[in-house]
């Protein structure tokens, strides 16, 4: 980074500090980095917050027409007809949304956690490392991220083939980034229920991975609404779920929101060996044309937050009107988020697949706490230098510290990673 030249190229000092659990120090000056919990700058908050709600009305945008109506989002009769035919909500009045009282979730067979899997079930995966850090600029903050690294329970001999997990060998790796007042609860539900729904897919998730992912996201979304009740209105989660077929060596990736899955590829050229990053997901933002069209047909408005000077601040967000009061969600797809659901924000994952090659060495699945600070290539380079030394745990710590350094010495968002190294 040009902003912090003294923090570049310090692999050795990062490794030493991370491996010995000592405070990280600036290698150029030898002083500890300042990781004190400083309040987040308001502009940073406006740029990085996943959801905004209850914000003051925009003074410059909220204008009245001659008839006294707001000049906010307008949906014509034709647009409303098209939206209804496509299955999109057509109301732009969040106040009509109602939620059932919270109810217990139906029992479901839990997956086997990675640490409890035998080596014979880890099919081609050399190592899995998970790391998470809570936002450090808010006193008393509760980390709203959650992860999963697991597999289905193996079906017992003579069991009922028609129901329950099939144990077809699929491996699951997931990251969830909660937001809103109860975002931590939403992410926790996702981490427990989504892999279990994948495992319970009829015939096993590998029989039809795309449908298994789509069904698992839908059922998990239903679980969130059932368990949360009214608390789901302004709380939700992004999520990336990877289903790995260890026999065919294929990755199936489902994504809602702006968490990300990136593949690290190594090209062992004798003259100039290189690492490269391949994105297996796309950040699903409201201003992507296809996403924006769905949102606007559903009665939502896509605009950035308005700053004090009247200029737009931060990313495009989903609002109920041009007044830009609520909900202000910064993604176009998510789990939960009741107030945004009637505005065209959906829980349907975008599913992709990737056939693993000999040059594919690892995937890094992480929340936007990482990706808002580091580019894909930078994250892969930092990871690779420690995997080359068989230090995956140090790779995670080094990534976390690199984020801190990029942000001036502290985490400004929950930052969570699942590193999967292939054998």
Note the overall shape: globular
How many helical stretches? 10
Distance between the first and last residues' Cα? 32 Å
Largest sheet: 7 strands, antiparallel
Which structural class best describes the helix and strand composition?
Answer: alpha+beta
Please write the string of helix (H) and strand (E) elements.
Answer: HHHEEEEHHEEEEHEEEEHEEHHHE
Strand and helix map with partners:
Elements: H1 11-20, H2 42-48, H3 77-85, E1 112-113, E2 125-133, E3 145-151, E4 171-179, H4 183-199, H5 209-228, E5 236-245, E6 250-256, E7 260-267, E8 274-279, H6 289-297, E9 301-306, E10 312-319, E11 327-329, E12 335-336, H7 338-341, E13 350-355, E14 360-366, H8 368-371, H9 376-387, H10 392-406, E15 415-422
Helix pairs in contact: 1-10, 4-5, 9-10
Keywords:
single chain, 423 residues, alpha+beta, 7-stranded antiparallel beta sheet, 5-stranded antiparallel beta sheet, 15 strands, globular, disordered N terminus
């Amino acid at each position: 980074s040009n902003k912090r030249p003294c923090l570049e190229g310090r692999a050795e000092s990062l490794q030493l500090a991370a491996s010995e659990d000592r405070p990280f120090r600036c290698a150029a000056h030898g002083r500890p980095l300042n990781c004190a919990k400083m309040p987040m700058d308001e502009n940073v908050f406006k740029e990085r917050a996943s959801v905004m709600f209850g914000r003051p009305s925009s003074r410059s945008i909220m204008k009245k027409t001659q008839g006294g109506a707001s000049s906010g989002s307008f949906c014509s009769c034709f647009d409303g007809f098209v939206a209804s035919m496509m299955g999109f909500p057509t109301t732009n009045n969040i106040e009509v949304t109602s939620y059932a009282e919270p109810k217990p979730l139906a029992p479901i067979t839990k997956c086997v956690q990675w640490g409890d899997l035998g080596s014979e079930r880890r099919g081609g995966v050399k190592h899995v490392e998970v790391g998470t850090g809570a936002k450090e600029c808010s006193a008393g903050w509760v980390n709203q991220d959650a992860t999963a690294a697991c597999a289905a329970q193996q079906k017992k001999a003579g069991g009922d083939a028609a129901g329950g997990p099939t144990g077809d060998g699929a491996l699951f790796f997931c990251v969830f980034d909660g937001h809103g007042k109860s975002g931590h609860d939403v992410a926790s539900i996702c981490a427990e229920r989504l892999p279990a729904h994948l495992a319970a897919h009829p015939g096993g998730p590998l029989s039809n991975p795309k449908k298994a992912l789509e069904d698992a996201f839908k059922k998990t979304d239903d679980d969130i609404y059932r368990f949360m009740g009214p608390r789901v209105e302004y709380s939700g989660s992004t999520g990336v779920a990877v289903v790995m077929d260890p026999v065919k060596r294929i990755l199936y990736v489902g994504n809602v929101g702006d968490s990300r899955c990136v593949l690290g590829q190594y090209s062992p050229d004798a003259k100039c060996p290189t690492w490269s990053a391949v994105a297996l997901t796309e950040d699903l933002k409201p201003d992507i044309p296809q996403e924006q069209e769905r949102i606007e047909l559903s009665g939502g408005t896509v605009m950035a937050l308005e700053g004090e000077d009247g200029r737009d601040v931060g990313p495009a967000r989903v609002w109920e009107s041009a007044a830009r009061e609520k909900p202000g969600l910064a993604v176009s797809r998510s789990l939960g988020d009741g107030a945004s659901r009637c505005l065209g924000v959906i829980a349907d994952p975008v599913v992709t697949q990737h056939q693993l090659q000999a040059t594919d060495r690892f995937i890094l699945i992480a929340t936007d706490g990482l990706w808002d600070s580091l580019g894909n290539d930078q994250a892969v380079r930092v990871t690779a230098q420690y995997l080359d030394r068989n230090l995956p745990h140090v790779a995670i710590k080094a990534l976390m510290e690199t984020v801190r350094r990029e942000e001036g010495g502290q985490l400004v968002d929950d930052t969570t990673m699942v590193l999967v190294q292939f054998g």
